[in-house]
Write a structure and sequence with these properties.
With 335 residues, the protein is mainly beta. The protein has 2 helices and 27 strands. It has a 4-stranded antiparallel sheet with strand order 1-2-3-4, with no helix packed on it.
């Protein structure tokens, strides 16, 4: 019994000491730290920088815009010119004067540019970062020949794989960018080609062909199209969009599921024929068609129409890029 009383006594002392300590901390130690003055801070809404209407020469060739429309490029012979439309500044790259640009392509989801260039006796792939003003050689593709006339670059930023076309040959560059590997092509006269965005598969057709060829694994998919069909693009769901027309213009668009060829294809008829380079396929299956005579871009999936002024250049992620009196303008979708 005596031991129990002693234990209870010590417990009481412990409780009293803890309470006294907490009282001291609350009233004295933390006093200066708890008297905090509150000040309201306003966070300003970040707005887009105003656009500079840079001048583009009337005879400029291969005018293209970056993913968000910030940068515009054009070619003068084998030389590349670039402007930042938020500042109006001309962007230059070191040592480019020693090479000839054969083809250039803006990435679909970021302001980066890939170029195919003649570098001495080689054709090489380069990666340009306009924000940093740097250009890095990725890999040599093949030996250069003056006989080569057709060049193209197809890239998926999701898989990190790039395919390069040089005339009737295609080379694959993987994400490691260690080398360019020749891709066996089973057609004699290569026509249009595209990539499946989410898979490392090349999609191509022969000139005047009716078969879509897909690599890795190899597949042949018949397309119910007449004339000279062309691959316009492939969306993230693996649906290919094939333009049907007379070889000059496209009057119909055929949708074909490449992941499940047994699904019946569907056809979309355009209100008027347009050139294949006036049709743009979005990652989520959007179909943007430029009706040049109406100065109108229509998205067929939603029916949204965008009127514009001047000469159509391209679309960017939020709208339409044009030249008005040789000056660069952007018009947001739906305006």
């Amino acid at each position: 019994m005596k031991k129990v009383k002693i234990i209870i006594a010590w417990m009481s002392v412990s409780v009293i000491l803890q309470c006294a300590g907490l009282f001291f901390l609350d009233k004295f130690y933390f006093k200066d730290n708890t008297d905090v003055e509150m000040e309201q801070v306003s966070i300003e809404k970040v707005e887009e920088k105003p656009e500079v209407h840079v001048s583009i020469p009337e005879d400029a060739k291969d005018v293209k815009v970056s993913y968000d429309g910030r940068y515009v490029t054009y070619r003068d012979g084998y030389d590349m010119n670039m402007y930042d439309t938020t500042t109006g500044e001309s962007k230059t790259f070191d040592d480019i004067e020693d090479r000839q640009i054969l083809k250039l392509t803006w990435l679909a989801d970021r302001d980066k540019l890939l170029t195919l260039e003649r570098d001495g006796y080689q054709i090489a792939l380069y990666n340009y970062d306009p924000e940093k003003g740097t250009n890095d050689k990725m890999v040599d593709i093949c030996q250069y020949s003056s006989q080569y006339k057709t060049f193209d670059i197809k890239v998926s930023t999701i898989t990190g794989v790039t395919y390069v076309r040089v005339d009737n040959m295609v080379y694959r560059v993987d994400i490691n960018q260690s080398q360019a590997v020749s891709v066996p092509i089973v057609v004699r006269n290569l026509g249009s080609l595209a990539l499946m965005p989410t898979k490392d598969r090349l999609v191509y057709m022969a000139n005047n062909g009716q078969i879509v060829h897909v690599t890795q694994p190899k597949e042949r998919i018949a397309i119910p199209a007449g004339g000279d069909p062309k691959i316009l693009g492939v969306d993230s769901e693996g649906v290919a969009y094939i333009g049907e027309g007379n070889g000059v213009t496209v009057s119909k668009i055929i949708k074909k599921d490449l992941d499940d060829p047994n699904i019946k294809s569907s056809t979309i008829k355009l209100t008027e024929p347009v050139k294949s380079n006036e049709i743009f396929i979005g990652e989520n299956g959007e179909i943007y068609v430029n009706y040049k005579s109406k100065h109108l871009v229509k998205e067929l999936k939603s029916g949204q129409e965008t009127k514009y002024e001047g000469r159509f250049i391209s679309i960017y992620n939020k709208g339409v890029a044009t030249l008005v009196d040789n000056k660069y303008y952007k018009t947001k979708f739906g305006k």
